[in-house]
């Protein structure tokens, strides 16, 4: 299981600097975080998606959506 953060291409440099796994698409970048115990703990700590993204250094204003797949 993974959490996928769909975000704007303008975040590509930040995502690469942080070393996150990602996929590039025409209109967005998909950051792929394996749903590990650490990610689950962060997910449970932050009720708000913006806080979740901030924890990972991703600007929430450039996020299209977040999904669990």
Instruction: Calculate the mean pLDDT score and round it.
Output: 91
The SSE order reads EHEEHHE
Structural class: alpha+beta
Proportion of beta-strand residues: 25-35%
Strand order of the largest sheet: 2-3-1-4
Number of strands: 4
Oligomer: single chain
Distance between the termini: 6 Å
Major sheet characteristics = 4 strands, antiparallel
What does this structure look like?
The chain is built from three helices and four strands; from the N terminus they run βαββααβ. Helices cover 33% and strands 32% of the residues. The chain has helices spanning 12-18, 37-45, 49-55, and strands spanning 2-7, 21-24, 29-34, 63-68. It has one domain (2-68). It is of the alpha+beta class and 69 residues long. The longest helix has 9 residues, at 37-45.
Short account of what is shown:
The protein has 69 residues and is an alpha+beta fold.
Offer a few descriptive terms.
69 residues; four-stranded antiparallel sheet; alpha+beta; single chain; 33% helix
Layout of strands and helices, then pairs:
Elements lengths: L1 E6 L4 H7 L2 E4 L4 E6 L2 H9 L3 H7 L7 E6 L1
Antiparallel strand pairs: 1-3, 1-4, 2-3
């Amino acid at each position: 299981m993974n959490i996928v953060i769909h975000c704007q291409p303008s975040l590509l440099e930040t995502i690469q600097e942080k070393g996150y796994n990602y996929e590039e698409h025409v209109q967005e970048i998909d950051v792929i975080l394996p749903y590990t115990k650490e990610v689950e703990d962060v997910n449970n700590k932050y009720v708000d998606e913006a806080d979740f993204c901030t924890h990972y250094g991703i600007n929430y204003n450039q996020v299209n959506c977040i999904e669990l797949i």
